[in-house]
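Handoff note, outgoing to incoming analyst
You'll be picking up this chain. Sequence as last confirmed:
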Amino acid sequence: MAVTLTEAAAKHVAGMLSKRGHGLGLRVGTRKSGCTGFAYDVDYADAVDPADQVFESHGVKVVVDEDSLGRIDGMEIDFVRSSLLNQGFEFRNPKVKDTCGCGESFSV
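Most recent structure output, in case you need it:
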């Protein structure tokens, strides 16, 4: 079981944590949303709860809550730039069965 970051994503997260001045890593989870069922929730991880799972990729910790892990186990997170103004995380989740037309939500 794991949620991993590509080298590009790890570098981006490490840079953001450095600018922020504190934080343990990246917190990734899911929440009910959209027409298909779930959306990704991404934030800084400032603490680890007892039910969290912690993974590490390229020196950066990824914290996942227990409820979300079943929906995102095996996922790889990349950070992509397609232009100066268009950049962000790309989620490669092998558990996704369907996505909505706008790409904001998914089902497993």
